[in-house]
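DATA CLASS: polypeptide
GOAL: derive structure tokens

***
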Amino acid sequence: RTDQPGSQWAILRELEAAGVKFGSHQNAWTSFEETAYWLHTPAAFAPRALELLCALVSEIRLSEADVDAERPIVLEEWRASKDWAQRASEHHFARTFAGTMLPTRLPIGSLEVVETADAATLRGFYERAYVPSNLAVIVAGDFLAGGSSEDDDNNNGSAASSSSPKSPPGPPWATEDALVAALEQTFGRIEPRSRQQQQQQMPERPWPRPLAAYVKARHNGQDDDEQLPKFEETLFGAAALEEEQPTVHDDDDDTSNRGGGASPSSEVSLFEDREATATSCGVSVLRAWRPPVTFAALRDALLDDLWHLVLNRRLAKLALRARPPFANASIGAERPLALFADVEEHGDSNQHFKAVCVTTLGVEPKSRDEAVAATKAAWLEVERLATGAAPVTRDELDVASVEILSELRAVWLERDQCESATLADECRDHFLLGLVAMDPEIEVSATARMLDAVAPSDVTEQARRCVRPGSSLPPKRLVTCTRPTDGASAPGLVGRFLGAPGRLARRVFGGRTTDVVEATQADPGEEAGPVPDLSSSSDGAAAFARAVAEAAATAEAELLLKDDAAQESAAPQEKQVDRAAFFAPTRAAGAIRRETRRALYAGADGPLEGAPESALEIELANGLVATFARTELRNDEIVVRCVAPLGLSEVFRSVGVDNTPSKTMMMMGHRRPPKNLVAAKAATALAREYGLFGVPKAELLDVLGGRSIACSPDVDAYRRGIDADCAPDDLEVLFALLHRVFATSAARDPDRLATFLELSKEHLRHEAADPRSRFSRLFETVSTAGHAYFERPTLRDLETFDAEVAADVFDAAFASSSDMSAWRVVVVGALPSDAELRRLAETWLGSIAFPSEGDQQQQSAEYFADAGARPPAPLGVRFPRSAVRRVVRFDPPEKDDRRTPAASPRREPPPTMEIDDAEASKTTTPISEAEMTPHVSSADTSSDARLRASCTRVALPASVGGAVLYTANASSEKEEDPAVGRLRHSLALDVAASVLEARLLDVLRLDKSAVYDVSARVSFATADPLDASDPEAPLRGALVVGAGHDPSKADVVVTAALDAVADLRSRGPAERELDNALKTATVDRHEQLRRNAYWANAIARTYLAPRFKGDLAATYRETVETRDALFASLERAPTRIDDLRRAFDAALPAAVNTQHVVVSLLPTSRSSRLVRRVLGSLGVGPGGPFPVVALGLAGALVGGAALVSLRRARRA
């Protein structure tokens, strides 16, 4: 903000004029250790960007008006993150770092401070913290004359013209010395604070600190750098933990026999929330962090990566079994943190901090009730590795080394293609963590040499040190579980009826189109209040705490090793795959029918450096067309897109569904999709569970041998596709996988089907509990007028799920595709020679042929027959014809639920488990009270009650085509080809949506302080496919505006959106708005052109475009020229404002006030909550003693609400 009248947002406007969009290109963040401001600018704008950043950190204006205006925006940012996942994260975070300042010093702040802090307080903090000694300035990009003439891929955008992404002007600095001089001149003018202000500065920042500041090395004749770090004192400062910590001596023979370390102190943190949609568990182990500033420390970091890779591979193979013990599990290390001890307990916090890293095992159970078993099975694998019961093998080490070497190869090959953001992050870590920003050559050579010297026993020993550290390092282990509250997925009887009166009255008697969907949602206060006595709880919380804590104990883990070995010997083993047969074509190589070189038009200003200038198009004898575009954008990346027309709409057409909802379905607000359609929409997911390439999923890991290859087929409404990517060395392996997608069918497996249904039911059972999920589903349903295709399946649908139909649909889409001429395979990246590409195409793609009769079910293959000869079947989605407003309600926590947690009553330690094995029983120790107390409430619920996420989406029907948009600079006002005109109209509508978004941001955030962010976009996701034979047919979609807001501001957002649309239609954009939108679009496109994925998608979309007539070069050139001509016209034409206004006006209906959709997510009204509390206190409702009374009261409520709605309708 500036003080000049009329220029309050002058800096923001200047940045926008340079293409630096608010939010995506200019922003800030705060973490525990840093506050960072960043600008993502064109290189030519870098000198001015430095001046603006300098002003931001040294000349900020802080008035009471500024603070009051920004206060609600911060609250909206806070509100946007307040969901069940965030509450669970804060709850477990508080338990993990108990005894430190972190849980009470979250980066967002406290609600009290945000609501009450005044300008004087903020000014004091600003003057203490924003001082030169705390400041680091990072400049990353291609800004020196010695670099290339292009912007780097992250400092994008043309500074000369927005009609085409051309090279920017010369670099701003000639030499590094010139850059240093500019930095000194810009930031050197920051005046030091006064003596009094210097004395009040913030405590000395913890980073970077020498190793000795928080680590003591043991001296036993070796170098300090070779030692494990040791805490100077107990890390967490909790007296209870210090007392419970067992004393284990380094020379304890028994300890060394059991893994060489003390069993960490364990706690259990259980979090239940009725809004939770999934169950997740974790085991976190905290240990001292050792900065990798020496080769010895770098070797430790490498060993950490290796044992994580080995363990994750084992866990993945368990999760990929036909009947897995868990849905997913993985382990990884989080970013290190500097921990400040509680000031009240330790005094000066600057003298009591440590640095730690957290290693977390994350587990996703198959269901809520299997949390204990899943966590136990996953942690057992950790113990097997750490204790040496299942040590790392040479094969496992080789596979893990392949993965690391693949990453090293990418670092080396792309050392001159690194993104600016990545370089900036490395510089930030050097400033904050004291890390060494190594040259790629040193990093690659050092790591490769270390890998050669690593033995499997070294990796096993590193796992032991991390999981079972010695007595010199007091560790802490936290077992966490987040799960839905039992029964949360079944809304209460009263809750279901509270939303019905409005719908019933409207359908029966007419009236206002306002619908309320009442969702009996989670009470975030579930984690609040005194810790319950879980030992007497019926929901199994005590059993969970006891079972997981016992599974984490050393003796119990060793006992389980024997049981697990027996179980593994009895478990069905996956069939071993013949690698030679797997990587062999199923048929003889096919011949090349035609080969053509297609030019890729780059625009009037020529191609960007490294971008493709042409593509090699090869048509094979089976009709498939493969297109190869060689780039120099990423030297270690190849992106593949396979596309073909026809999708699930063919199944929808085949079942002959009448999409007109019946009155009953309209009254209830939903309709069930056809049975075959439910199976068809699950076809890809079920095929992934069966195994996509004709082999079990677990065996595929061994077949690939550590190669990083992605290959994912999918079927949507109107097309089939495969998205894939790999390194250049793995291109032939990827082609072999593509071949097997088409040449093999889904292998039906009843066990894997049972697992698939189990996971699907668990997801559906809890999905409706999440208000945001219900909000998104309702918006999709309402904006498509209740179309059956977009309805989500229910548990009842899964009970009658036809797996054979699902597998047949997938096979018909890929494995039994009779018309390979419909398929286009686009390959973009660092490609080999043309001769090698021809060989790969002939060997792997040319050998794909339609299987002989009887190999597949021909009935299912008919879904996609003649794909290249007919247009896709339209779904017939239509936007509602009238104004519709719906509300999804959720229950905020009540004030009574926000109590300070009371201390958990002391309980007697549980008895030692009885163990049959006599030897194992000798090592069994009782589990301490600290290990057994499940902490259930530590999240900050005081903010949950007032900062629940509310949001609104406004949708208006939009269509392109049918309205003629002329080129202003044409010699004659000649009408364009209808298909090209439709493309121009679509591009112009995108520009108008960008203008609308910027305008709404100005109104709702900068002027009214009502939102944190707002979006406006045009979506054609539900549009019927275009028929090439009808170029004048319009393309129908929707203009969608969305924003998060205070619950009381829903009408403000809706009114602002409709008013902005009306104003843009009548008066068009302002000059500044249009210029900024064009500049931002050019900057974004310039960045996109430096992505292999962009070129692969662009070429694939060109093949599917209705304008495509067989010539890729001509159609792509037409697309680029149309965009360039439109942008040139909108830049320079005298009528450019009116041109965009007419394009926007023609896309929308005549009266948007009477045809739009508004869906809001809002808290439940007080009256509804009062009714439920009264009924609950009387024992009325599901599970209560008076279910008949509940039905009667619900009927009375329905009748009364219907009469009220009828009276309102008559008044209207």
User: Anything to note?
Assistant: The first strand starts at residue 26 and ends at 30.
